[in-house]
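Key result, reporting period 2: structure in, sequence out.
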């Protein structure tokens, strides 16, 4: 991932990444562990944690700065210390205070209406969603969130930031924001219901035009922003319209798509493929679950190209790889984010919060690991400084030229 955000670039290309796919693509499968919410007995080979309690006691009796020995902080640090050795960002602990929201992508959520990412140790605004509390408060792409309700975000994961910022409609959240121009501002935002359109035919810049400024009428454009339970039903009439319209080609835009529901992702892939493997899911003991496309999808014939960028993650990577490996469509743009795991929440007993656990990893149809690797495009196109200055979508223009054979 790039070391720094380019605010103009982000505002041009990144529309709405939502859900506790978190804008960074932690995909969630509709499943729950059999032991979710139940007390778990201590395994026979568990390490002896008595030393941990002894250390806590010694700190309480002897440590010079007793004021900083906050019980909850020590408790969470002990848990996070154990999880850190896994080197797996998809497995993490959520304290009971913040574990109070619905974490399944659904097309709507309650919060402030902004997507965040972690960059250089900071929580950064990727993009505010139009007509939401975040945008109305003046939050902009590239802004850094320094504090949430008076607590520093230093060392926070994206997941923790999202869970702290999101919340029920009508409640407030206080943010200390450092704008991209260096100005620091304290903001109080009232959360609201945020509605997201999963599928759109409108490009980020508005009218669908080519490099000469002419409106494009021979090619179709579809942007999938996130995979929700509504994606397939929203996409079906659009693909039917495209099929009936006699278009010469289709540009499928998966840029800045953070993923979402696995079931929805597979269903969408099936619409473009006339058979073949969509995804290989590797679980414990190397057990594999293979997802395959059925023959007869509604958009299996039209020539197409797929746009991806460094914020295309999780489900977006699954779909992109499925189309690439099956020879259905080339990918154009930048290498994707590299988030390919299935993560499920396990509620801890006695309201102690929850542990999100990675239960499986994803491989492309060619059995290439997605997580930590990403998907490389067939045609690499990055936006130039001139593109950014002119607010020109060079990747979309390149896709138009490719389909026209120019």
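The corresponding designed sequence is given below.
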């Amino acid at each position: 991932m790039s070391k720094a955000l380019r605010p103009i670039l982000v505002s041009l290309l990144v529309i709405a990444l939502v859900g506790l796919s978190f804008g960074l693509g932690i995909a969630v499968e509709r499943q729950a562990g059999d032991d979710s919410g139940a007390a778990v007995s201590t395994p026979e080979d568990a390490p002896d944690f008595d030393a941990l309690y002894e250390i806590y006691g010694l700190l309480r009796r002897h440590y010079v700065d007793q004021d900083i020995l906050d019980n909850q902080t020590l408790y969470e640090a002990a848990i996070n210390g154990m999880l850190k050795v896994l080197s797996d960002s998809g497995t993490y602990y959520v304290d009971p205070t913040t574990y109070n929201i619905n974490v399944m992508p659904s097309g709507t959520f309650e919060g402030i209406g902004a997507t965040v990412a972690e960059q250089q140790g900071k929580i950064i605004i990727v993009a505010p969603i139009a007509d939401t509390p975040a945008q109305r408060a003046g939050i902009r792409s590239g802004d850094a969130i320094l504090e949430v309700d008076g607590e520093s975000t230093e060392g926070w994961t994206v997941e923790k930031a999202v869970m702290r910022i999101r919340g029920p409609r009508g409640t407030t959240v206080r943010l200390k924001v450092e704008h991209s121009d260096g100005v620091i501002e304290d903001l109080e935002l009232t959360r609201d219901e945020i509605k997201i359109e999963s599928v759109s035919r409108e490009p980020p810049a508005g009218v669908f035009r080519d490099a000469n400024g002419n409106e494009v009428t021979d090619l179709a454009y579809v942007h999938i922003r996130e995979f929700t339970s509504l994606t397939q039903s929203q996409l079906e009439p659009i693909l039917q319209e495209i099929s009936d319209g006699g278009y010469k080609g289709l540009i499928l835009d998966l840029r800045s798509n953070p993923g979402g529901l696995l079931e929805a992702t597979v269903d969408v892939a099936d619409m473009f493929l006339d058979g073949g493997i969509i995804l290989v899911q590797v679980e414990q003991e190397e057990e594999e679950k293979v997802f395959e496309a059925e023959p007869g999808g509604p958009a299996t014939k039209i020539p197409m190209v797929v746009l991806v960028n460094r914020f295309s993650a999780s489900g977006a990577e699954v779909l992109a790889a499925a189309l690439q490996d099956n020879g259905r469509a080339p990918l154009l743009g930048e290498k994707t984010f590299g988030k390919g795991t299935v993560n499920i929440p396990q509620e801890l007993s006695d309201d102690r919060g929850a542990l999100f656990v990675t239960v499986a990893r994803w491989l492309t149809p060619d059995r290439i690991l997605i997580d930590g690797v990403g998907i490389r495009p067939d045609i690499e196109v990055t936006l130039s400084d001139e593109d950014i200055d002119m607010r020109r979508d060079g990747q979309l223009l390149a896709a138009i030229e490719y389909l026209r054979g120019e």
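Confidence is low (pLDDT under 50) at residues 1-38. The two ends are 30 Å apart (CA to CA). This case is discussed further under Risks and Mitigation.
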